[in-house]
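Q: What would this chain look like folded?
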Amino acid sequence: MTEIVHADRALALIGGEPNDANLRRYLHGIPGVDAVGLQQRAAGLGTRSIKTTSKAWALDRIIGLIDLTTLEGADTPGKVRSLVAKAVTPDPGDLTCPRVAAVCVYGDMVPHAVQALGAAHGEIAVAAVATAFPSGRASRSIKLEDTADAVAAGADEIDMVIDRGAFLAGRYGQVFDEIAAVKEACRRADGTYAHLKVILETGELNTYDNVRRASWLGILAGGDFIKTSTGKVSPAATLPVTLLMLEVVRDWYRLTGHQVGVKPAGGIRTSKDAIKYLVTVAETAGEEWLTPHLFRFGASSLLNDVLLQRQKVATGHYSGPDYVTID
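A: My prediction, written as structure tokens:
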């Protein structure tokens, strides 16, 4: 029922079927981005400081919003088990440390992640990249099979990549249909759906206007999250791009009453940078977005820096470099 309601909202906004003509009319009717204003606002938010008394809260919140990620061709079941162990107990010396939101792996690693999580699966989600990640260059049938296999193996979330070539060529209907088809492939045997994160790969979209249009397209087609990047293309996540995407989900919520999440991924390595994102989320979409259901960091090395900063807040001094595990 939720998916039907979402589709009805999308068709009402588009003004008809989601074909190239209707989508082009809608997407190109969205006001253009004031690039200078966007960058200045992002820079201003990036200079905001938080009180020392709030830093411990912020560090714990960051940990609880991380999708702890390994997406390498050399990934092994053993590496995934180690990743899961760190996700469950980020700081073995301090069991008050919160767990991360999810572990993110390739589809063939999903069974190993599910098995390693055991009873923690549910509190910690398993996210799988799919649809010929990171390039997206495969037939639709392959992409749908990739998605369905990961869901059947126990993935709670699917991170798909859009066809950037089709988008940049103006084939918006093709991109919409593919996202909608992948969303349907997220359906489980019991009729529920794995959450779908739609990766825009903003570093290949060239302009802020394209990022805004792709964000709207991803939401209209049924994405539960819009995600900046695969982490394999530079630039990956940036504060201005994330701010722009947060503005889109805010505007969608005001139009429809439906909340969509945002996930910046790639290049966020320090707690200092992550706090800038927390401030940007709170000031743009609202503090209610600072939950794993609506905001995530896609990261591998960020957790280590946050753990070191958390130790500094607790003890007054930095730990040695061997305090945290090497990813």
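The chain has a mean pLDDT of 94.
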